[in-house]
Amino acid sequence: MVPSRLLSLGPRTVHGGVGRWTQVQRWPPSPRLLSDSCGDHGKHQEPPRKKLLSEKKLKRHFVDHRRVLVCGGRGGDGVSCFHSEPRKEFGGPDGGDGGNGGHVVLRADRQVKSLSSVLSRYQGFHGESGGRKNCFGRSGALLYVQVPVGTLVKEGKEVVADLSCPGDEYIAALGGAGGKGNRFFLANENRAPVTCTPGQPGQERVLFLELKTMAHAGMVGFPNAGKSSLLRAISNARPAVASYPFTTLKPHVGIVHCEDHQQIAVADIPGLIRGAHQNRGLGSTFLRHIERCRFLLFVVDLSEPEPWTQVEDLKFELEKHEAGLSERPHVVVANKIDLPQARAALPQLRARLGPSVIALSAATGENLEALLLRLQELHSQHVGAELRW
Ligand SMILES: Nc1nc2c(ncn2[C@@H]2O[C@H](COP(=O)(O)OP(=O)(O)OP(=O)(O)O)[C@@H](O)[C@H]2O)c(=O)[nH]1
Ligand SMILES: [Mg+2]
Questions:
Q1: Which residues line ligand 1 (CB under 6 A)?
Q2: Which of 16, 68, 140, 253 has the least C-beta neighbours within 10 A?
Q3: What is the pTM assigned to this prediction?
Q4: What would the mean pLDDT of 18-31 be, rounded to a whole number?
Q5: Is the ipTM of this complex over 0.90?
Q6: Where is this region: Disordered (predicted)?
Q7: Taking a C-beta distance cutoff of 8 angstroms, is the pair 9, 234 a contact?
Q8: What count of other Cβ atoms lies within 10 Å of the Cβ of residue 159?
Protein backbone atom coordinates (compact mmCIF):
# COMPACT_ATOMS: atom_id res chain seq x y z
CA MET A 1 0.00 0.00 0.00
CA VAL A 2 1.25 3.46 -0.81
CA PRO A 3 1.69 5.61 2.31
CA SER A 4 -0.45 8.73 2.39
CA ARG A 5 2.73 10.80 2.90
CA LEU A 6 3.66 10.01 -0.70
CA LEU A 7 0.61 11.78 -1.98
CA SER A 8 1.64 15.00 -0.29
CA LEU A 9 5.31 15.32 -1.01
CA GLY A 10 5.00 19.11 -0.99
CA PRO A 11 5.39 21.41 -3.97
CA ARG A 12 6.54 19.23 -6.83
CA THR A 13 9.81 20.30 -8.36
CA VAL A 14 10.47 19.94 -12.05
CA HIS A 15 13.69 19.88 -13.96
CA GLY A 16 14.07 23.20 -15.74
CA GLY A 17 17.07 23.52 -18.01
CA VAL A 18 20.52 22.12 -17.35
CA GLY A 19 21.32 21.98 -13.68
CA ARG A 20 18.43 24.21 -12.58
CA TRP A 21 15.37 23.48 -10.51
CA THR A 22 12.28 25.59 -10.83
CA GLN A 23 9.07 25.49 -8.81
CA VAL A 24 5.75 25.09 -10.60
CA GLN A 25 3.94 28.46 -10.46
CA ARG A 26 0.83 28.17 -8.28
CA TRP A 27 -2.51 29.92 -8.65
CA PRO A 28 -3.42 32.41 -7.21
CA PRO A 29 -0.20 34.28 -7.85
CA SER A 30 1.73 35.69 -4.92
CA PRO A 31 0.41 38.88 -3.25
CA ARG A 32 3.47 40.71 -4.55
CA LEU A 33 2.33 40.16 -8.16
CA LEU A 34 -1.19 41.38 -7.38
CA SER A 35 -0.02 44.46 -5.54
CA ASP A 36 1.76 45.71 -8.66
CA SER A 37 -1.59 46.61 -10.14
CA CYS A 38 -2.99 48.52 -7.16
CA GLY A 39 -2.10 51.99 -6.02
CA ASP A 40 -0.97 51.72 -2.38
CA HIS A 41 2.22 49.74 -2.68
CA GLY A 42 3.43 50.94 0.68
CA LYS A 43 0.63 49.39 2.77
CA HIS A 44 0.60 45.85 1.40
CA GLN A 45 4.26 45.23 0.94
CA GLU A 46 5.44 41.69 1.69
CA PRO A 47 8.08 41.57 4.41
CA PRO A 48 11.49 41.14 2.81
CA ARG A 49 12.26 37.41 2.41
CA LYS A 50 15.20 36.05 4.34
CA LYS A 51 17.98 35.51 1.85
CA LEU A 52 19.04 31.88 1.65
CA LEU A 53 22.66 31.30 2.57
CA SER A 54 24.75 29.92 -0.24
CA GLU A 55 26.34 26.52 0.33
CA LYS A 56 29.76 28.19 0.60
CA LYS A 57 28.57 30.50 3.35
CA LEU A 58 26.82 27.64 5.11
CA LYS A 59 30.09 25.75 5.15
CA ARG A 60 31.70 28.72 6.85
CA HIS A 61 29.02 28.57 9.55
CA PHE A 62 29.22 24.84 9.95
CA VAL A 63 32.11 23.66 12.08
CA ASP A 64 32.40 20.00 12.92
CA HIS A 65 35.57 19.93 15.02
CA ARG A 66 37.12 22.22 17.60
CA ARG A 67 40.08 22.30 19.94
CA VAL A 68 39.11 23.77 23.31
CA LEU A 69 41.14 24.64 26.37
CA VAL A 70 38.97 24.28 29.45
CA CYS A 71 40.05 25.49 32.89
CA GLY A 72 38.04 24.91 36.04
CA GLY A 73 37.55 27.87 38.38
CA ARG A 74 40.10 28.47 41.11
CA GLY A 75 39.06 27.73 44.68
CA GLY A 76 38.76 30.73 47.01
CA ASP A 77 41.45 31.25 49.68
CA GLY A 78 40.92 30.40 53.33
CA VAL A 79 41.35 33.31 55.75
CA SER A 80 43.32 33.63 58.96
CA CYS A 81 41.81 35.99 61.54
CA PHE A 82 40.69 36.06 65.18
CA HIS A 83 37.48 37.03 66.80
CA SER A 84 37.79 40.09 68.96
CA GLU A 85 35.28 42.41 70.58
CA PRO A 86 35.14 44.55 73.75
CA ARG A 87 35.49 42.39 76.88
CA LYS A 88 36.17 39.33 74.68
CA GLU A 89 39.66 39.98 73.52
CA PHE A 90 40.70 36.40 72.64
CA GLY A 91 37.58 35.12 70.89
CA GLY A 92 39.47 32.42 69.01
CA PRO A 93 40.12 31.82 65.32
CA ASP A 94 37.21 32.69 63.03
CA GLY A 95 38.67 32.68 59.47
CA GLY A 96 36.23 30.95 57.06
CA ASP A 97 37.01 28.54 54.21
CA GLY A 98 37.12 29.64 50.60
CA GLY A 99 34.44 28.47 48.17
CA ASN A 100 35.13 25.79 45.58
CA GLY A 101 35.87 26.76 41.98
CA GLY A 102 33.11 26.07 39.41
CA HIS A 103 33.32 23.17 36.95
CA VAL A 104 33.14 23.61 33.20
CA VAL A 105 30.41 21.33 31.87
CA LEU A 106 29.68 20.36 28.26
CA ARG A 107 25.98 19.86 27.63
CA ALA A 108 24.34 18.43 24.48
CA ASP A 109 21.65 20.81 23.29
CA ARG A 110 19.17 20.07 20.50
CA GLN A 111 19.11 23.76 19.44
CA VAL A 112 22.84 23.90 18.69
CA LYS A 113 23.59 22.65 15.20
CA SER A 114 27.34 23.03 14.85
CA LEU A 115 30.43 23.65 16.91
CA SER A 116 30.88 27.14 15.42
CA SER A 117 29.54 28.77 18.61
CA VAL A 118 32.06 26.94 20.80
CA LEU A 119 35.00 29.17 21.78
CA SER A 120 38.61 28.05 21.93
CA ARG A 121 38.98 28.68 25.67
CA TYR A 122 36.68 28.50 28.67
CA GLN A 123 37.53 29.64 32.18
CA GLY A 124 35.28 28.42 34.99
CA PHE A 125 34.02 30.79 37.71
CA HIS A 126 36.37 31.22 40.69
CA GLY A 127 35.28 30.53 44.26
CA GLU A 128 35.18 33.48 46.66
CA SER A 129 37.63 33.75 49.55
CA GLY A 130 36.44 33.04 53.09
CA GLY A 131 35.72 35.93 55.47
CA ARG A 132 35.76 36.91 59.12
CA LYS A 133 33.21 35.49 61.55
CA ASN A 134 33.49 32.00 60.03
CA CYS A 135 31.99 33.13 56.76
CA PHE A 136 32.57 30.65 53.96
CA GLY A 137 33.20 31.98 50.47
CA ARG A 138 30.61 31.38 47.77
CA SER A 139 31.44 28.52 45.36
CA GLY A 140 31.87 29.30 41.68
CA ALA A 141 28.81 28.54 39.53
CA LEU A 142 28.91 25.81 36.89
CA LEU A 143 29.85 27.07 33.46
CA TYR A 144 27.78 25.29 30.80
CA VAL A 145 29.06 25.02 27.26
CA GLN A 146 26.29 24.05 24.83
CA VAL A 147 27.37 21.63 22.13
CA PRO A 148 25.33 19.86 19.44
CA VAL A 149 23.86 16.43 20.09
CA GLY A 150 26.29 13.87 18.67
CA THR A 151 29.48 15.52 19.90
CA LEU A 152 32.40 13.26 20.69
CA VAL A 153 34.85 14.55 23.28
CA LYS A 154 38.44 13.37 22.87
CA GLU A 155 41.55 13.93 24.93
CA GLY A 156 44.52 13.11 22.74
CA LYS A 157 43.36 10.03 20.84
CA GLU A 158 41.15 8.73 23.61
CA VAL A 159 37.38 9.24 23.47
CA VAL A 160 36.33 10.45 26.92
CA ALA A 161 32.65 11.22 26.32
CA ASP A 162 29.97 10.71 23.72
CA LEU A 163 27.15 13.24 24.07
CA SER A 164 24.64 11.45 21.90
CA CYS A 165 21.36 12.33 23.65
CA PRO A 166 19.89 15.79 24.31
CA GLY A 167 20.72 16.85 27.86
CA ASP A 168 23.83 14.62 28.19
CA GLU A 169 26.48 16.33 30.28
CA TYR A 170 30.20 15.86 30.77
CA ILE A 171 32.39 17.64 33.32
CA ALA A 172 35.19 18.87 31.12
CA ALA A 173 37.23 20.57 33.88
CA LEU A 174 36.83 20.31 37.64
CA GLY A 175 36.94 23.45 39.72
CA GLY A 176 39.68 23.70 42.37
CA ALA A 177 38.87 23.04 46.03
CA GLY A 178 38.52 26.07 48.30
CA GLY A 179 41.27 26.75 50.87
CA LYS A 180 40.75 26.27 54.62
CA GLY A 181 40.46 29.13 57.06
CA ASN A 182 42.32 29.08 60.39
CA ARG A 183 39.15 28.05 62.23
CA PHE A 184 39.55 24.65 60.53
CA PHE A 185 42.90 24.11 62.25
CA LEU A 186 41.57 24.74 65.77
CA ALA A 187 42.54 21.81 68.02
CA ASN A 188 43.03 21.12 71.71
CA GLU A 189 46.78 21.30 71.24
CA ASN A 190 46.59 24.56 69.33
CA ARG A 191 43.92 27.01 70.47
CA ALA A 192 45.15 29.86 68.30
CA PRO A 193 46.17 28.52 64.86
CA VAL A 194 47.29 31.09 62.32
CA THR A 195 47.50 28.63 59.45
CA CYS A 196 45.19 28.98 56.47
CA THR A 197 45.51 27.44 53.03
CA PRO A 198 45.09 29.01 49.57
CA GLY A 199 42.48 27.75 47.10
CA GLN A 200 43.52 25.10 44.60
CA PRO A 201 43.73 25.93 40.89
CA GLY A 202 41.09 24.34 38.66
CA GLN A 203 41.78 21.46 36.33
CA GLU A 204 43.16 22.42 32.93
CA ARG A 205 42.57 20.24 29.90
CA VAL A 206 42.84 20.44 26.14
CA LEU A 207 39.88 18.66 24.58
CA PHE A 208 39.00 17.94 20.98
CA LEU A 209 35.32 18.13 20.14
CA GLU A 210 34.14 16.29 17.08
CA LEU A 211 30.64 16.35 15.65
CA LYS A 212 29.21 13.29 14.00
CA THR A 213 25.90 13.68 12.21
CA MET A 214 23.18 11.73 13.90
CA ALA A 215 20.75 10.31 11.39
CA HIS A 216 19.04 6.99 10.88
CA ALA A 217 20.01 6.75 7.22
CA GLY A 218 23.04 8.18 5.46
CA MET A 219 23.18 8.79 1.71
CA VAL A 220 26.53 7.81 0.30
CA GLY A 221 27.45 8.40 -3.32
CA PHE A 222 29.79 9.95 -5.83
CA PRO A 223 29.44 13.67 -6.55
CA ASN A 224 26.53 14.45 -8.90
CA ALA A 225 24.78 11.12 -8.21
CA GLY A 226 21.71 13.09 -7.11
CA LYS A 227 21.84 12.68 -3.31
CA SER A 228 20.72 16.22 -2.58
CA SER A 229 17.97 16.00 -5.21
CA LEU A 230 16.75 12.82 -3.57
CA LEU A 231 16.75 14.36 -0.10
CA ARG A 232 14.75 17.31 -1.43
CA ALA A 233 12.28 14.91 -3.03
CA ILE A 234 11.61 12.82 0.09
CA SER A 235 11.92 15.41 2.87
CA ASN A 236 11.59 19.11 3.62
CA ALA A 237 15.36 19.67 3.66
CA ARG A 238 16.63 22.04 0.98
CA PRO A 239 20.27 21.27 0.18
CA ALA A 240 21.68 22.98 -2.91
CA VAL A 241 21.47 21.06 -6.19
CA ALA A 242 23.66 21.79 -9.20
CA SER A 243 25.21 19.97 -12.10
CA TYR A 244 28.78 20.37 -10.87
CA PRO A 245 30.53 17.99 -8.46
CA PHE A 246 30.91 18.85 -4.77
CA THR A 247 27.84 21.09 -4.66
CA THR A 248 27.18 19.87 -1.15
CA LEU A 249 29.91 20.90 1.25
CA LYS A 250 28.33 20.01 4.57
CA PRO A 251 25.97 17.27 5.67
CA HIS A 252 22.25 18.07 5.58
CA VAL A 253 19.68 16.15 7.55
CA GLY A 254 16.09 15.88 6.35
CA ILE A 255 13.18 14.29 8.17
CA VAL A 256 10.98 11.84 6.31
CA HIS A 257 7.50 11.54 7.86
CA CYS A 258 6.02 8.07 7.59
CA GLU A 259 2.32 7.29 7.66
CA ASP A 260 2.64 5.56 11.06
CA HIS A 261 3.96 8.88 12.47
CA GLN A 262 7.52 7.65 12.58
CA GLN A 263 10.14 10.17 11.61
CA ILE A 264 13.24 8.98 9.83
CA ALA A 265 16.25 11.28 9.72
CA VAL A 266 18.13 10.98 6.42
CA ALA A 267 21.52 12.65 5.99
CA ASP A 268 22.87 13.91 2.66
CA ILE A 269 26.59 13.51 3.02
CA PRO A 270 28.99 15.34 0.65
CA GLY A 271 30.15 13.27 -2.29
CA LEU A 272 32.94 10.75 -1.89
CA ILE A 273 35.46 9.90 -4.59
CA ARG A 274 37.96 7.11 -5.05
CA GLY A 275 40.76 7.66 -2.53
CA ALA A 276 38.56 9.64 -0.10
CA HIS A 277 40.03 7.62 2.78
CA GLN A 278 43.46 9.04 1.77
CA ASN A 279 41.98 12.54 1.98
CA ARG A 280 41.25 12.94 -1.73
CA GLY A 281 38.31 15.12 -2.80
CA LEU A 282 36.66 16.50 0.31
CA GLY A 283 38.68 13.90 2.15
CA SER A 284 37.81 11.61 4.99
CA THR A 285 36.25 14.43 7.05
CA PHE A 286 32.79 13.37 6.04
CA LEU A 287 33.38 9.63 6.24
CA ARG A 288 33.03 9.91 9.99
CA HIS A 289 29.49 11.25 9.63
CA ILE A 290 28.58 7.95 8.02
CA GLU A 291 29.78 6.00 11.07
CA ARG A 292 26.77 7.07 13.10
CA CYS A 293 24.08 6.20 10.56
CA ARG A 294 22.22 2.99 11.35
CA PHE A 295 21.72 2.15 7.69
CA LEU A 296 23.03 3.46 4.41
CA LEU A 297 21.63 4.42 1.01
CA PHE A 298 24.21 3.93 -1.72
CA VAL A 299 23.08 6.43 -4.35
CA VAL A 300 24.29 5.48 -7.82
CA ASP A 301 24.11 7.59 -10.97
CA LEU A 302 22.60 5.06 -13.35
CA SER A 303 23.35 7.20 -16.41
CA GLU A 304 27.11 6.72 -15.93
CA PRO A 305 28.85 3.82 -17.70
CA GLU A 306 29.22 0.67 -15.54
CA PRO A 307 27.23 2.03 -12.57
CA TRP A 308 27.91 -1.08 -10.42
CA THR A 309 31.56 -0.04 -10.07
CA GLN A 310 30.32 2.98 -8.07
CA VAL A 311 28.89 0.69 -5.38
CA GLU A 312 32.09 -1.37 -5.26
CA ASP A 313 34.23 1.77 -4.94
CA LEU A 314 32.01 3.30 -2.26
CA LYS A 315 32.11 0.09 -0.23
CA PHE A 316 35.89 -0.02 -0.61
CA GLU A 317 36.24 3.54 0.71
CA LEU A 318 33.97 2.85 3.69
CA GLU A 319 35.82 -0.36 4.51
CA LYS A 320 39.19 1.44 4.39
CA HIS A 321 37.85 4.10 6.76
CA GLU A 322 36.45 1.65 9.27
CA ALA A 323 36.38 -2.13 9.00
CA GLY A 324 32.81 -3.45 8.83
CA LEU A 325 31.24 -0.12 7.83
CA SER A 326 30.30 -1.37 4.36
CA GLU A 327 28.50 -4.34 5.94
CA ARG A 328 25.91 -2.06 7.56
CA PRO A 329 22.32 -2.63 6.41
CA HIS A 330 21.97 -0.79 3.15
CA VAL A 331 19.92 -0.23 0.01
CA VAL A 332 21.30 0.51 -3.42
CA VAL A 333 19.37 3.37 -5.02
CA ALA A 334 19.81 3.71 -8.78
CA ASN A 335 18.95 7.32 -9.59
CA LYS A 336 18.15 9.13 -12.87
CA ILE A 337 15.96 6.33 -14.27
CA ASP A 338 14.18 9.02 -16.32
CA LEU A 339 17.18 9.14 -18.69
CA PRO A 340 17.05 6.56 -21.54
CA GLN A 341 20.65 5.37 -21.09
CA ALA A 342 19.97 4.81 -17.39
CA ARG A 343 16.90 2.70 -18.05
CA ALA A 344 18.94 0.56 -20.46
CA ALA A 345 21.66 -0.07 -17.83
CA LEU A 346 19.20 -1.20 -15.13
CA PRO A 347 18.89 -4.92 -16.06
CA GLN A 348 22.68 -5.27 -16.02
CA LEU A 349 22.95 -3.52 -12.64
CA ARG A 350 20.24 -5.78 -11.18
CA ALA A 351 22.01 -8.87 -12.58
CA ARG A 352 25.16 -7.88 -10.72
CA LEU A 353 23.80 -6.46 -7.47
CA GLY A 354 20.55 -8.39 -7.11
CA PRO A 355 16.89 -7.53 -7.60
CA SER A 356 16.70 -5.43 -4.41
CA VAL A 357 18.16 -2.39 -6.22
CA ILE A 358 15.61 0.45 -6.17
CA ALA A 359 15.53 2.34 -9.45
CA LEU A 360 13.99 5.80 -9.23
CA SER A 361 14.20 9.36 -10.40
CA ALA A 362 14.67 12.14 -7.90
CA ALA A 363 13.86 14.66 -10.63
CA THR A 364 10.48 13.27 -11.74
CA GLY A 365 9.54 11.51 -8.51
CA GLU A 366 9.21 8.14 -10.25
CA ASN A 367 9.25 5.15 -7.85
CA LEU A 368 10.01 7.20 -4.73
CA GLU A 369 7.32 5.13 -2.95
CA ALA A 370 9.50 2.02 -3.14
CA LEU A 371 12.35 3.84 -1.43
CA LEU A 372 10.11 5.23 1.30
CA LEU A 373 8.64 1.79 2.02
CA ARG A 374 12.13 0.28 2.20
CA LEU A 375 13.27 3.09 4.51
CA GLN A 376 10.33 2.41 6.79
CA GLU A 377 11.15 -1.30 6.82
CA LEU A 378 14.80 -0.71 7.68
CA HIS A 379 13.86 1.81 10.34
CA SER A 380 11.49 -0.54 12.13
CA GLN A 381 13.97 -3.44 11.87
CA HIS A 382 17.08 -1.69 13.10
CA VAL A 383 16.02 1.33 15.11
CA GLY A 384 12.79 -0.09 16.52
CA ALA A 385 14.67 -3.17 17.75
CA GLU A 386 17.24 -0.98 19.52
CA LEU A 387 14.52 1.08 21.20
CA ARG A 388 12.75 -2.07 22.45
CA TRP A 389 15.94 -3.11 24.23
N1 LIG B 1 17.81 13.54 -15.18
C2 LIG B 1 17.99 13.56 -13.88
N3 LIG B 1 18.87 14.40 -13.31
C4 LIG B 1 19.02 14.38 -11.98
C5 LIG B 1 18.27 13.50 -11.15
N6 LIG B 1 18.66 13.69 -9.89
C7 LIG B 1 19.60 14.65 -9.90
N8 LIG B 1 19.81 15.07 -11.17
C9 LIG B 1 20.76 16.10 -11.61
O10 LIG B 1 22.06 15.70 -11.25
C11 LIG B 1 22.86 16.82 -10.90
C12 LIG B 1 23.48 16.61 -9.53
O13 LIG B 1 22.46 16.55 -8.55
P14 LIG B 1 22.76 16.78 -7.00
O15 LIG B 1 21.52 16.41 -6.29
O16 LIG B 1 23.37 18.11 -6.77
O17 LIG B 1 23.86 15.66 -6.79
P18 LIG B 1 24.71 15.35 -5.46
O19 LIG B 1 24.89 13.88 -5.42
O20 LIG B 1 24.06 15.96 -4.29
O21 LIG B 1 26.08 16.04 -5.80
P22 LIG B 1 27.19 16.59 -4.78
O23 LIG B 1 26.51 17.52 -3.83
O24 LIG B 1 28.16 17.28 -5.66
O25 LIG B 1 27.77 15.39 -4.10
C26 LIG B 1 21.93 18.02 -10.94
O27 LIG B 1 22.15 18.68 -12.15
C28 LIG B 1 20.56 17.42 -10.89
O29 LIG B 1 19.65 18.23 -11.58
C30 LIG B 1 17.35 12.61 -11.79
O31 LIG B 1 16.66 11.81 -11.17
N32 LIG B 1 17.25 12.69 -13.13
MG1 LIG C 1 24.67 17.42 -3.05
A1: 19, 221, 223-229, 241-243, 245-248, 270-271, 335-336, 338-339, 361-363
A2: 16
A3: 0.62
A4: 36
A5: yes
A6: 29-48
A7: yes
A8: 12
